[in-house]
Design brief:
2 domains; Jelly Rolls; 6-stranded antiparallel sheet; single chain; alpha+beta; about 400 residues
Length: about 400
Protein backbone atom coordinates (compact mmCIF):
# COMPACT_ATOMS: atom_id res chain seq x y z
CA UNK A 1 0.00 0.00 0.00
CA UNK A 2 1.02 3.60 -0.50
CA UNK A 3 2.76 5.24 2.43
CA UNK A 4 5.75 7.24 3.58
CA UNK A 5 8.26 5.18 1.57
CA UNK A 6 6.21 5.67 -1.58
CA UNK A 7 6.09 9.41 -0.96
CA UNK A 8 9.86 9.52 -0.44
CA UNK A 9 10.51 7.54 -3.61
CA UNK A 10 8.27 9.79 -5.69
CA UNK A 11 9.66 12.92 -4.04
CA UNK A 12 13.19 11.81 -4.93
CA UNK A 13 12.24 11.45 -8.59
CA UNK A 14 10.47 14.79 -8.56
CA UNK A 15 13.47 16.47 -6.92
CA UNK A 16 15.78 15.13 -9.63
CA UNK A 17 13.33 16.34 -12.26
CA UNK A 18 13.04 19.77 -10.63
CA UNK A 19 16.80 20.20 -10.29
CA UNK A 20 17.30 19.20 -13.91
CA UNK A 21 14.76 21.77 -15.04
CA UNK A 22 16.44 24.43 -12.93
CA UNK A 23 19.82 23.66 -14.46
CA UNK A 24 18.28 24.00 -17.92
CA UNK A 25 16.48 27.20 -16.85
CA UNK A 26 13.28 25.40 -17.81
CA UNK A 27 11.21 26.42 -14.77
CA UNK A 28 8.70 29.19 -15.37
CA UNK A 29 9.40 32.18 -13.16
CA UNK A 30 6.61 33.26 -10.80
CA UNK A 31 4.69 36.37 -11.82
CA UNK A 32 5.98 39.75 -10.70
CA UNK A 33 3.19 40.88 -8.38
CA UNK A 34 4.41 44.46 -8.26
CA UNK A 35 4.33 44.79 -12.04
CA UNK A 36 0.90 43.10 -12.18
CA UNK A 37 -0.53 45.62 -9.72
CA UNK A 38 1.12 48.64 -11.34
CA UNK A 39 -0.09 47.79 -14.85
CA UNK A 40 -3.69 47.25 -13.84
CA UNK A 41 -3.71 50.26 -11.54
CA UNK A 42 -2.46 52.42 -14.41
CA UNK A 43 -5.42 51.30 -16.53
CA UNK A 44 -7.81 52.02 -13.70
CA UNK A 45 -6.33 55.48 -13.19
CA UNK A 46 -6.78 56.22 -16.90
CA UNK A 47 -10.38 54.96 -17.03
CA UNK A 48 -13.02 57.37 -18.39
CA UNK A 49 -15.17 59.04 -15.77
CA UNK A 50 -18.24 57.09 -14.69
CA UNK A 51 -16.92 53.65 -15.66
CA UNK A 52 -15.51 52.45 -12.33
CA UNK A 53 -17.36 53.00 -9.10
CA UNK A 54 -14.66 51.60 -6.81
CA UNK A 55 -11.48 49.51 -6.92
CA UNK A 56 -9.10 47.86 -4.48
CA UNK A 57 -5.98 45.74 -4.36
CA UNK A 58 -5.77 42.88 -1.87
CA UNK A 59 -2.53 41.10 -0.95
CA UNK A 60 -3.27 37.64 0.42
CA UNK A 61 -0.37 35.58 1.81
CA UNK A 62 -0.81 31.82 1.38
CA UNK A 63 -0.61 31.42 5.16
CA UNK A 64 -3.66 33.65 5.72
CA UNK A 65 -6.81 31.68 6.63
CA UNK A 66 -10.11 32.85 5.14
CA UNK A 67 -11.39 35.50 5.05
CA UNK A 68 -9.64 38.70 3.89
CA UNK A 69 -11.80 41.78 3.38
CA UNK A 70 -11.52 43.88 0.23
CA UNK A 71 -13.05 46.99 1.75
CA UNK A 72 -15.60 47.05 -1.10
CA UNK A 73 -19.26 46.94 -0.05
CA UNK A 74 -21.65 45.38 -2.55
CA UNK A 75 -25.40 45.69 -3.07
CA UNK A 76 -27.57 43.19 -4.96
CA UNK A 77 -27.07 43.71 -8.69
CA UNK A 78 -23.60 45.25 -8.47
CA UNK A 79 -21.24 43.86 -11.11
CA UNK A 80 -17.65 43.10 -10.20
CA UNK A 81 -14.51 41.89 -11.96
CA UNK A 82 -11.36 40.69 -10.25
CA UNK A 83 -7.91 39.78 -11.58
CA UNK A 84 -5.37 37.44 -9.98
CA UNK A 85 -1.63 36.84 -10.00
CA UNK A 86 0.61 34.77 -7.77
CA UNK A 87 1.30 31.24 -6.58
CA UNK A 88 0.71 29.15 -3.50
CA UNK A 89 3.48 26.62 -3.00
CA UNK A 90 2.97 23.21 -1.45
CA UNK A 91 6.70 22.59 -1.99
CA UNK A 92 9.02 25.16 -3.56
CA UNK A 93 11.92 22.75 -3.94
CA UNK A 94 9.79 20.30 -5.94
CA UNK A 95 8.10 23.20 -7.79
CA UNK A 96 4.63 22.10 -6.69
CA UNK A 97 2.19 24.98 -6.52
CA UNK A 98 -1.49 25.85 -6.88
CA UNK A 99 -2.56 28.42 -9.44
CA UNK A 100 -4.46 31.50 -8.20
CA UNK A 101 -7.72 30.66 -9.97
CA UNK A 102 -7.93 27.43 -7.94
CA UNK A 103 -6.72 29.02 -4.71
CA UNK A 104 -8.79 32.19 -4.43
CA UNK A 105 -12.47 31.93 -3.50
CA UNK A 106 -14.97 34.74 -2.91
CA UNK A 107 -17.78 35.47 -0.50
CA UNK A 108 -20.20 38.38 -0.25
CA UNK A 109 -20.88 39.13 3.40
CA UNK A 110 -20.09 36.66 6.15
CA UNK A 111 -22.76 34.10 5.26
CA UNK A 112 -23.01 34.10 1.47
CA UNK A 113 -22.15 31.00 -0.54
CA UNK A 114 -18.48 30.72 -1.47
CA UNK A 115 -17.55 30.68 -5.15
CA UNK A 116 -14.65 31.10 -7.54
CA UNK A 117 -13.94 31.49 -11.23
CA UNK A 118 -12.12 29.20 -13.65
CA UNK A 119 -9.42 31.60 -14.83
CA UNK A 120 -7.16 34.34 -13.48
CA UNK A 121 -9.97 36.82 -14.07
CA UNK A 122 -13.64 36.55 -13.21
CA UNK A 123 -16.76 38.73 -13.29
CA UNK A 124 -19.98 38.25 -11.37
CA UNK A 125 -23.17 39.98 -10.21
CA UNK A 126 -23.69 40.31 -6.46
CA UNK A 127 -26.78 38.49 -5.20
CA UNK A 128 -26.72 40.04 -1.73
CA UNK A 129 -25.41 42.98 0.26
CA UNK A 130 -22.13 42.79 2.12
CA UNK A 131 -18.39 43.22 1.89
CA UNK A 132 -16.60 41.31 -0.85
CA UNK A 133 -14.17 38.93 0.85
CA UNK A 134 -11.49 36.55 -0.42
CA UNK A 135 -10.23 33.30 1.00
CA UNK A 136 -7.38 30.83 0.49
CA UNK A 137 -8.51 27.30 -0.40
CA UNK A 138 -5.54 24.90 -0.45
CA UNK A 139 -4.51 23.04 1.68
CA UNK A 140 -7.90 23.17 3.40
CA UNK A 141 -11.30 22.34 1.93
CA UNK A 142 -14.80 23.73 2.36
CA UNK A 143 -17.02 21.86 4.79
CA UNK A 144 -20.11 24.00 4.10
CA UNK A 145 -21.25 26.38 1.34
CA UNK A 146 -20.92 29.37 3.69
CA UNK A 147 -17.15 28.92 3.97
CA UNK A 148 -16.73 26.59 6.94
CA UNK A 149 -13.44 24.68 6.72
CA UNK A 150 -12.88 20.93 6.83
CA UNK A 151 -9.55 21.14 8.69
CA UNK A 152 -8.18 23.41 11.37
CA UNK A 153 -6.80 26.66 9.94
CA UNK A 154 -3.38 25.69 11.28
CA UNK A 155 -2.83 23.79 7.99
CA UNK A 156 -2.18 27.10 6.23
CA UNK A 157 1.16 27.32 8.02
CA UNK A 158 2.41 24.49 5.79
CA UNK A 159 2.28 26.47 2.53
CA UNK A 160 3.99 29.58 1.21
CA UNK A 161 3.56 32.19 -1.47
CA UNK A 162 1.17 35.06 -2.11
CA UNK A 163 -1.68 36.04 -4.39
CA UNK A 164 -2.41 39.61 -5.43
CA UNK A 165 -6.04 40.46 -6.23
CA UNK A 166 -7.19 43.60 -8.05
CA UNK A 167 -10.95 44.22 -7.74
CA UNK A 168 -13.17 46.55 -9.75
CA UNK A 169 -16.78 47.40 -8.90
CA UNK A 170 -18.28 48.74 -12.10
CA UNK A 171 -20.67 51.67 -12.39
CA UNK A 172 -22.59 49.68 -15.01
CA UNK A 173 -22.14 46.24 -16.50
CA UNK A 174 -18.86 44.36 -16.33
CA UNK A 175 -18.92 43.75 -20.08
CA UNK A 176 -19.27 47.44 -20.92
CA UNK A 177 -16.78 48.46 -18.26
CA UNK A 178 -14.14 46.07 -19.58
CA UNK A 179 -14.68 47.35 -23.11
CA UNK A 180 -14.25 50.98 -22.10
CA UNK A 181 -11.28 50.27 -19.87
CA UNK A 182 -9.51 48.35 -22.62
CA UNK A 183 -10.14 51.19 -25.05
CA UNK A 184 -8.18 53.51 -22.76
CA UNK A 185 -5.13 51.25 -22.86
CA UNK A 186 -5.21 47.63 -24.06
CA UNK A 187 -4.20 44.94 -21.56
CA UNK A 188 -4.11 41.20 -22.03
CA UNK A 189 -6.03 40.44 -18.84
CA UNK A 190 -8.91 42.67 -19.90
CA UNK A 191 -9.13 41.02 -23.32
CA UNK A 192 -8.95 37.57 -21.72
CA UNK A 193 -11.85 38.38 -19.40
CA UNK A 194 -13.93 39.68 -22.30
CA UNK A 195 -13.23 36.44 -24.14
CA UNK A 196 -14.20 34.41 -21.08
CA UNK A 197 -17.50 36.26 -20.73
CA UNK A 198 -18.31 35.53 -24.37
CA UNK A 199 -17.42 31.83 -24.13
CA UNK A 200 -19.86 29.01 -23.38
CA UNK A 201 -18.51 27.37 -20.21
CA UNK A 202 -21.51 25.37 -18.99
CA UNK A 203 -20.89 21.73 -18.01
CA UNK A 204 -22.38 18.95 -20.16
CA UNK A 205 -26.21 18.75 -19.84
CA UNK A 206 -27.35 16.89 -16.74
CA UNK A 207 -23.92 17.09 -15.06
CA UNK A 208 -22.54 19.52 -12.50
CA UNK A 209 -19.17 20.19 -10.90
CA UNK A 210 -18.59 19.17 -7.29
CA UNK A 211 -19.31 22.39 -5.41
CA UNK A 212 -16.43 22.39 -2.93
CA UNK A 213 -13.79 21.83 -5.64
CA UNK A 214 -15.36 24.52 -7.78
CA UNK A 215 -16.13 24.89 -11.49
CA UNK A 216 -13.76 24.09 -14.34
CA UNK A 217 -13.50 24.14 -18.12
CA UNK A 218 -12.24 20.56 -18.29
CA UNK A 219 -15.26 18.70 -19.72
CA UNK A 220 -17.20 19.31 -22.92
CA UNK A 221 -20.09 17.42 -24.48
CA UNK A 222 -19.24 16.30 -28.01
CA UNK A 223 -20.72 14.19 -30.79
CA UNK A 224 -18.37 12.33 -33.12
CA UNK A 225 -17.84 9.04 -34.89
CA UNK A 226 -18.38 7.18 -31.62
CA UNK A 227 -21.63 9.03 -30.93
CA UNK A 228 -22.24 11.25 -27.91
CA UNK A 229 -19.30 11.53 -25.55
CA UNK A 230 -17.77 13.80 -22.93
CA UNK A 231 -14.31 15.06 -23.81
CA UNK A 232 -11.88 15.78 -20.99
CA UNK A 233 -8.73 17.89 -21.16
CA UNK A 234 -6.96 18.78 -17.92
CA UNK A 235 -3.80 20.86 -17.57
CA UNK A 236 -2.75 22.23 -14.19
CA UNK A 237 -6.31 22.11 -12.88
CA UNK A 238 -8.83 19.81 -11.22
CA UNK A 239 -12.52 19.06 -11.63
CA UNK A 240 -15.07 16.47 -10.59
CA UNK A 241 -18.12 16.26 -12.82
CA UNK A 242 -21.14 14.56 -11.23
CA UNK A 243 -24.49 13.15 -12.30
CA UNK A 244 -27.09 12.08 -9.74
CA UNK A 245 -28.66 8.60 -9.85
CA UNK A 246 -30.69 6.61 -7.32
CA UNK A 247 -30.33 2.85 -7.54
CA UNK A 248 -30.03 -0.01 -5.05
CA UNK A 249 -26.61 -1.62 -4.65
CA UNK A 250 -27.12 -5.36 -5.20
CA UNK A 251 -25.05 -8.40 -6.11
CA UNK A 252 -25.76 -7.65 -9.78
CA UNK A 253 -24.91 -3.94 -9.71
CA UNK A 254 -22.36 -3.12 -12.40
CA UNK A 255 -21.02 -0.10 -14.19
CA UNK A 256 -19.88 -0.26 -17.81
CA UNK A 257 -18.32 2.43 -19.95
CA UNK A 258 -16.18 3.07 -22.99
CA UNK A 259 -13.26 5.42 -22.96
CA UNK A 260 -10.42 6.54 -25.16
CA UNK A 261 -7.53 7.79 -23.04
CA UNK A 262 -5.23 9.72 -25.33
CA UNK A 263 -2.77 11.03 -22.75
CA UNK A 264 -2.16 10.36 -19.07
CA UNK A 265 -1.35 13.46 -17.00
CA UNK A 266 1.69 11.92 -15.30
CA UNK A 267 4.31 9.18 -15.79
CA UNK A 268 4.87 8.46 -12.09
CA UNK A 269 2.86 6.19 -9.79
CA UNK A 270 -0.21 8.07 -8.64
CA UNK A 271 -0.57 6.80 -5.05
CA UNK A 272 1.56 9.58 -3.55
CA UNK A 273 0.43 13.11 -2.73
CA UNK A 274 2.94 14.95 -4.99
CA UNK A 275 2.11 12.68 -7.95
CA UNK A 276 -1.63 12.20 -7.47
CA UNK A 277 -2.62 13.31 -10.99
CA UNK A 278 -5.04 11.02 -12.86
CA UNK A 279 -8.19 10.56 -14.98
CA UNK A 280 -10.99 8.35 -13.70
CA UNK A 281 -14.66 7.41 -13.51
CA UNK A 282 -16.17 6.94 -10.06
CA UNK A 283 -19.33 5.78 -8.32
CA UNK A 284 -20.57 7.42 -5.11
CA UNK A 285 -22.67 5.55 -2.55
CA UNK A 286 -25.16 6.65 0.09
CA UNK A 287 -22.54 6.43 2.85
CA UNK A 288 -20.59 9.31 1.28
CA UNK A 289 -17.76 7.12 -0.03
CA UNK A 290 -16.81 6.53 -3.64
CA UNK A 291 -14.77 4.03 -5.63
CA UNK A 292 -12.89 5.44 -8.59
CA UNK A 293 -11.52 3.44 -11.53
CA UNK A 294 -8.52 4.82 -13.38
CA UNK A 295 -5.79 4.10 -15.90
CA UNK A 296 -2.40 4.20 -14.19
CA UNK A 297 0.88 5.10 -15.81
CA UNK A 298 2.74 2.35 -13.92
CA UNK A 299 0.78 0.69 -11.10
CA UNK A 300 -0.57 -2.80 -11.94
CA UNK A 301 -4.20 -3.48 -12.83
CA UNK A 302 -6.11 -4.59 -9.74
CA UNK A 303 -4.01 -2.48 -7.38
CA UNK A 304 -6.15 -0.48 -4.96
CA UNK A 305 -5.46 2.18 -2.34
CA UNK A 306 -7.12 4.76 -0.17
CA UNK A 307 -6.79 8.29 -1.51
CA UNK A 308 -3.48 9.79 -0.27
CA UNK A 309 -4.85 13.34 -0.04
CA UNK A 310 -5.66 14.26 3.59
CA UNK A 311 -9.06 15.79 2.74
CA UNK A 312 -10.11 12.66 0.81
CA UNK A 313 -8.60 9.88 2.90
CA UNK A 314 -11.30 7.47 4.06
CA UNK A 315 -13.76 8.83 1.50
CA UNK A 316 -12.33 7.82 -1.87
CA UNK A 317 -10.77 4.53 -2.91
CA UNK A 318 -8.75 4.13 -6.12
CA UNK A 319 -8.69 0.97 -8.24
CA UNK A 320 -6.39 0.55 -11.24
CA UNK A 321 -8.22 -0.99 -14.22
CA UNK A 322 -5.52 -0.47 -16.87
CA UNK A 323 -1.81 0.27 -16.73
CA UNK A 324 0.96 1.55 -18.97
CA UNK A 325 0.96 2.89 -22.49
CA UNK A 326 -0.54 -0.08 -24.34
CA UNK A 327 -3.96 0.83 -25.68
CA UNK A 328 -3.68 4.58 -25.20
CA UNK A 329 -5.44 6.42 -28.01
CA UNK A 330 -7.81 3.49 -28.63
CA UNK A 331 -11.38 2.97 -27.45
CA UNK A 332 -11.59 0.46 -24.59
CA UNK A 333 -14.62 -1.25 -23.04
CA UNK A 334 -14.82 -1.63 -19.25
CA UNK A 335 -17.27 -3.35 -16.90
CA UNK A 336 -17.05 -3.66 -13.10
CA UNK A 337 -19.23 -5.33 -10.48
CA UNK A 338 -19.73 -2.62 -7.86
CA UNK A 339 -20.81 -4.90 -5.01
CA UNK A 340 -17.85 -7.24 -5.50
CA UNK A 341 -15.38 -4.36 -5.78
CA UNK A 342 -16.76 -2.65 -2.69
CA UNK A 343 -16.44 -5.83 -0.64
CA UNK A 344 -12.92 -6.54 -1.91
CA UNK A 345 -11.49 -3.09 -1.51
CA UNK A 346 -13.62 -1.13 0.95
CA UNK A 347 -15.48 -3.47 3.32
CA UNK A 348 -19.17 -3.84 4.13
CA UNK A 349 -21.23 -2.43 1.24
CA UNK A 350 -23.79 0.37 1.68
CA UNK A 351 -27.36 0.33 0.37
CA UNK A 352 -27.58 2.61 -2.65
CA UNK A 353 -25.73 4.17 -5.59
CA UNK A 354 -26.26 7.93 -5.64
CA UNK A 355 -23.88 9.49 -8.22
CA UNK A 356 -21.49 8.82 -11.07
CA UNK A 357 -18.39 11.01 -11.29
CA UNK A 358 -15.76 11.89 -13.86
CA UNK A 359 -12.51 13.02 -12.22
CA UNK A 360 -9.56 14.86 -13.73
CA UNK A 361 -6.63 16.06 -11.64
CA UNK A 362 -3.37 17.57 -12.89
CA UNK A 363 -2.64 20.24 -10.28
CA UNK A 364 0.49 18.61 -8.82
CA UNK A 365 2.71 18.13 -11.87
CA UNK A 366 0.67 20.31 -14.27
CA UNK A 367 0.77 17.80 -17.11
CA UNK A 368 -1.81 17.31 -19.85
CA UNK A 369 -4.45 14.60 -19.57
CA UNK A 370 -6.90 13.84 -22.39
CA UNK A 371 -9.75 11.36 -22.46
CA UNK A 372 -13.17 10.74 -24.06
CA UNK A 373 -15.98 8.92 -22.22
CA UNK A 374 -19.01 7.29 -23.85
CA UNK A 375 -21.83 4.83 -23.11
CA UNK A 376 -21.73 4.98 -19.32
CA UNK A 377 -24.36 2.51 -18.07
CA UNK A 378 -25.44 1.18 -14.68
CA UNK A 379 -26.75 -2.39 -14.62
CA UNK A 380 -28.65 -4.21 -11.90
CA UNK A 381 -31.72 -6.31 -11.22
CA UNK A 382 -33.93 -4.16 -13.44
CA UNK A 383 -33.54 -2.17 -16.66
CA UNK A 384 -30.14 -0.60 -17.25
CA UNK A 385 -29.71 3.09 -16.48
CA UNK A 386 -27.95 5.19 -19.09
CA UNK A 387 -25.77 7.86 -17.48
CA UNK A 388 -24.19 9.00 -20.77
Amino acid sequence: MAGALTDLSVAGKLLAKSLGRRLRADIESPPNLGVFEQELQALIDAAPAGVIRESACVSMPATQPPWSGSGIQLSPGDQVSYFLAGRVYANRLLDIYVSPQLQVWCQVGDSGEVFRGTRTSHSFTADRAGELRFGNYFPNDWASPDGGRLQDDAVYADVSGEVRILVIKWAGSAEEGLRQLQASGAAGLLAAEQERLAASLAPPPGWEYLWHLGPAEIYQHQHGEQGACIHCHTHGDVGILQKAVDLPLTENSEISWRWCVEQLPITLREDSVPSHDYLSIAVEFDNGRDITYYWSSSLPAGYGYDCPLPNWKGKEYHVVVRSGGAGLGEWQDERRNLMADYRQYMGEPPQRIVKVWLIANSIFQRGHGRCDYADILLHGDGPETRVL
